[in-house]
Every structure is written in C-alpha cells, then in structure tokens.
Amino acid sequence: MTDSKPKPQLRLKERMELLCVEMVEKGILFSEAMDQFERCFITEVLRRNNGNLIRTAAILGIHRNTLAKKVKGARAAHW
C-alpha cells in the first residue's frame, strides 16, 4: 500500500514563476508577455462585468477612455 497523497495546489506566485520560466525558455519577448497578460487580465474583468467598460475600468484602476482605447486596439488585433 502506497501513501499517495494528493499534491498541494501551487500558490499564485509559484504558478506565475513557472509560467515565466516557460515563456523565457520559449523565447517570448517581454513586450509580448506583457501584452498577453494585459489582454487576458482585461478580458477576464470585462467578462465578470458583462462587458461594462465603466465598471471594468474602475476595478482595473484606469480611466474608462484608456480601457476603451485598449479594447478597441485589441479588437483590431483580433483580441
């Protein structure tokens, strides 16, 4: 009989560090990594607010016009 205990879930910091290691190993540029993170983060906050830009901007701590420009630019780039 083996003691196969379930592995504990990695904490957010540890998961982020592993992701960073993977991106560096694959040669992803810093600017690409930042763009992808921003898109992913904004998309999730928008989803949680049913696409409401004003609420999303408030949660993100940015001006609604800044958010609108980011979303518009991202849509043009197939966000």
Would you kindly provide a brief summary of this structure?
This protein is mostly helical. It contains 4 helices and no strands. 68% of the residues lie in helices and 0% in strands.
What does this structure look like?
The chain is an all-alpha fold and 79 residues long. The protein has a domain at 30-79: Orthogonal Bundle (Arc Repressor Mutant, subunit A). The chain is built from 4 helices and no strands. It has helices at residues 12-25, 30-48, 53-60, 64-76. α2 (30-48) crosses α3 and α3 packs across α4 (64-76). The longest helix has 19 residues, at 30-48. The termini are far apart.
Supply the CATH architecture of the domain at 30-79.
Answer: Orthogonal Bundle
Order of helices and strands: HHHH
Assembly category: single chain
Bin the helical content: 55-70%
What is the global morphology? extended
Strand-pairing-aware structural class:
mainly alpha
Termini gap: 50 Å
Low-pLDDT sequence parts: none
Report the biggest beta sheet as strand number plus sense, adding barrel if it closes: none
- What is the number of E strands? 0
What fraction strand?
under 5%
At the third CATH level, what is the topology name of the domain at 30-79? Arc Repressor Mutant, subunit A
CATH class of the domain at 30-79, named: Mainly Alpha
Overall average residue pLDDT = 91
**Rg over alpha carbons:** 17 Å
User: How many H/I helices?
Assistant: 4
